[in-house]
Fold each of these.
Amino acid sequence: MKNDSLYDLYLEHEGKVSDKWHSYLEIYDEQFASLRESPIRLLEIGIQNGGSLEIWSRYFPNGSLFVGCDIDPKCSGLRYDDDRIHVIIGDANTDETQNEIRQNSDMYDLIADDGSHRSSDIITTFSRYFSMVQPGGTYVIEDLHCSYWEAWQGGLNAPYSAMSFLRRLADVVNAEHWGDGGDIRSQLKGFERHWNLTLDEHHIALIQSVSFHNSVCIIRKSVSGPPRVGSRVVAGQERMVADDPLLRSGHEVGAIKLDLDKRLLGEAAVVDRPPSSMGEGANPWGAGAEPMEEVASTIGELRLAGYDPFKTSDFVSTIKDVRALYPEEQNPIPHLLDDAVMLRERAEVQATKISELQQVQGELIGDASKLRELTETQEKKISELRLSYERIARNPLLGFFLWLKFMVLSMLLRIPFLSSSSREKMRRSAEKRAPQRFRAKSETANSD
Ligand SMILES: C[S@@+](CC[C@H](N)C(=O)[O-])C[C@H]1O[C@@H](n2cnc3c(N)ncnc32)[C@H](O)[C@@H]1O
């Protein structure tokens, strides 16, 4: 029994029902192996039929306390032979229930949240109970697949879901590297505002690690103080590839006893400054920037209000609307968005200019090809003229005959094409010269 895996215990179990996914049991076996013989105090939020408390009490045979809490009044009927097991009925997210839980113990080595699985409850429960995790202890959240579903206040990209919160806690583990201006409360303020809760900054800063598994997140609390990357430990003398000047800064003094394991490692250097001392105050994406979920939620709210935040006109009008509603110092639109508007406007102006230039370029190309055609025609004519000029120059007689031919042809062509006015003029001058002929002609015409 003592070495049975949690899965084995579930398979053997015959008492009250417990309902967990197979992979959880393997994860817990791996994570809690070192605690199996410890006198741990365990709190489970959400116990339903109560079987998990029975199995936990067998898994940790030396466990000193197993407290289960459930909002369902039917759980008050659960009875256990083992007097280490206690059941508290009530909403875990009320002061009253939390005080009752505290009466059993102020601190717990392992707290498991298997309650409603709604994002607001998961984050609120964490904000209430992580302070009750013993230093070095563990907080587990089950069934996080619900965090991807709308009915549980989630969604893959939901800014304030339980998973978004837990991803932020992974940043908290690295808080010492955020650089200038980064404080945990301001980075998590969106969750506080959105779910109307107060986060315990002091205890959150003690998160040693956050490990994600399928549907389960395991958060470890440090034994003492916020986690630190610690000293840079450098051993050896040969620097064939990288000769970091930092490692020559007076720490290289023969053999140093490393504070990690107190063993002599020959020549070694211990550099105390973690990379966090580098600043990041000027980094536009550093701690001074609006947290991701705040930006995402602002964009989401604009969408819900019927604006398309990625359409400049909507974006600009929204910002103007919001600006009009709030005094400058309470302006809820982050500067980041202002910059985005400005950049988008500039981009649109540039795009218009580019398309105008492309149009002009097209017209110029058209003109150039027409000019080329014209030039070619002219060149052809010029070369023909040059040829005929050369022929004439070579043979003046041919020139004369050509001229004569032209003159004769023009005369011949001109006769049938005399205009009516010229013909009238010719008739009148003929009448002047022989009027009697014309008179006789008109008399003959009248007698007819
Ligand atoms: C998934 S079941 C628990 C299953 C149990 N842990 C097991 O392993 O068999 C979820 C339980 O959480 C309880 N619950 C939901 N919201 C709660 C809350 N705010 N406080 C306490 N319990 C809650 C429900 O009544 C339900 O019995």
Note: The chain has a mean pLDDT of 85.
Amino acid sequence: MSRFISSIVVKTRKNHKCFGCRAIIPKGTKLEVITLVEDDIYRIRTCEVCKEFEKLLKAWEFEEFFEGGYPEDERWQEIKRKLEEIV
Ligand SMILES: [Zn+2]
């Protein structure tokens, strides 16, 4: 069971991989960093598209969706297109 520690909005100082779709989040991007503790400390960075997607799902569904690395999946591409129109 992971424990939520904090959520802060930062401007990234280097490139990061999105926790969800694994896309590169370029440095200088403003994003929310969520810190969790589960044995170790984890910092979760999510791109704008995934952030919107996450709002549509419960957290466990979001994690499950990306578990097998879905970015190439057609379903994901479709969702991504729709979300990109929003953000
Ligand atoms: Zn993403």
Note: Strands lie at 3-11, 16-17, 24-25, 30-38, 40-45.
Amino acid sequence: MSEQLRSIEEQLARNAEYYGTVDTANITLSCFAKAALVALRSSEGQGFRDTVDYMIELRPELKGPTAVKLLERAYQTDLLEHDVSYPYGYQDEAPWLKTFSSVNVHDDFLRWGLLANNAALRNVQSCVDERYKTIKLFTSLVANRFDAPPTLLDVGSSVLHGDLKLVYESDPSSPVRPFQPIEILNDKHEKAKDERLTKLANVALSQQIQFGHVMGVDITDIDDVGTRRWARGCRFYPDELFQPDVVEDYDLLESTDPDHSRVSFLKGDFATMTRNEVVAASPVSTWDIIAFSTVFFQVSSSERIAMLLNALNLLSDNGLIIIQDAREVIVGMEDDVEGNFSIPFNYATSIIDAQRASDDYEEPVIAWENGRCQRAVFEPKGRIRVNGGDVPIDEALEMRFGNAV
Ligand SMILES: C[S@@+](CC[C@H](N)C(=O)[O-])C[C@H]1O[C@@H](n2cnc3c(N)ncnc32)[C@H](O)[C@@H]1O
């Protein structure tokens, strides 16, 4: 057995256990993992083995955690198209095994080919609008720096849902709902809610912020139907598909601004793109807020550095770069680390503040319980400049909104 296959099997075994006993809200993923292990170890489920073989052939560098995530998403994308009983009918191993056997290259070449190519050629492209509440939070904190509505450049924007949420959530004529409130905890372990910080953070989050020009950049063609289907298949944990509100919000954003007239889009690789290409694609030459949300974990360390340098060259004098990702990716920008999103409070937000001109940026300011960004703790070491002082985020919130609470 190859090293890569072993690493895939190990991850499947971990998921079977984790989603079966710890995170039982996602039982469908545990059933997927158990059935996948059976398919790899027995004569059942040839279709699954073919998908894995194809993936290994094309991406020998993929490690177990990423490979398994891609397999889960590829099968989900396929089933959302082909089986109306998904995910309701997939909370058991048997239907997964049936699918693994029935999807095969001889019976249905197009369906199998699409599934295998999604797994082997794409990257995870989940677009989670709730993650962009950090951008709102920080923009509220520094809004008084800017003479005009701040401009926003979102790198790795996927299908732009986060940007659309930022632009439309406070527009009374739009059905797009506001961000869900944040809960700030005073400790990662005890998880007790800090009432005052929670109120302050939500005051910041409920400010009316008008953005100037907003542009997303992504390496994929987000107007391609296949990319849209893949992004949708990546967006949900299977069991989130049982929550009508979450699905409804997604579909609403999906149908908002289809022509990119309010939020523009530039397709390309931000690691190799020149500053001029970005400037030529927009009416502005510098950007007040530049976001990298959950994108650095997908690229090599040298690409991260190239992307960051590009951002520094496009940042306005008072601007902020907001980076959120797995903690080890943010603090180890120069290392080839993959990022683990299943450790609680390992999804973190960090900022580079043009006004601070310091290299302390890598200290995260917020640690989120997970990438859905509902509960968080503030990190004591991270700093932002507010009213001329470099302060941690709790102090910054107190300075800006303390009177309102
Ligand atoms: C996991 S998604 C995150 C989407 C969104 N920012 C969020 O936080 O929900 C990562 C996105 O980064 C894009 N991406 C990866 N490498 C890129 C690059 N070099 N240049 C531009 N976009 C890139 C991927 O295509 C994908 O859409």
Note: The CA atoms of residues 183 and 375 lie 5 Å apart.
Amino acid sequence: MDGWGTMHLMAYRREPSRSRRWRKVSRWDTVQDQGCWICTACRTAMRSYAYRIHPADSPHYERCIGLSWCSGCGVYTGATVHVPRDRALPDALAALPPERREWLLASERRLIEYLDSHMEAAR
Ligand SMILES: [Zn+2]
């Protein structure tokens, strides 16, 4: 046993077994309904989140990761998206301790599972 590090890791590992339900796809069918996109298969509103992966002084700063998903079907897409430098992106992980953030950002499935259960539906 090597103390706190291991214990934290184990606690995190145990938590998100649900993250396995997410399946990455290149696209799924959505239709626009009263200003928001909904899944044609289950009628759940599509949800999305974009985050920066490059530091502000990087020439790639505007290249972000954009995720979108359907909680009903458990499918998601992840792609590089372009977000202008002057547009502030809300940081859904801002309140989390750094090691927790890192842990979530290390896996798209974990991140989506977290966002899906902590974010308000974008309506
Ligand atoms: Zn669906």
Note: Residues 74 and 105 are 18 Å apart (CA to CA).
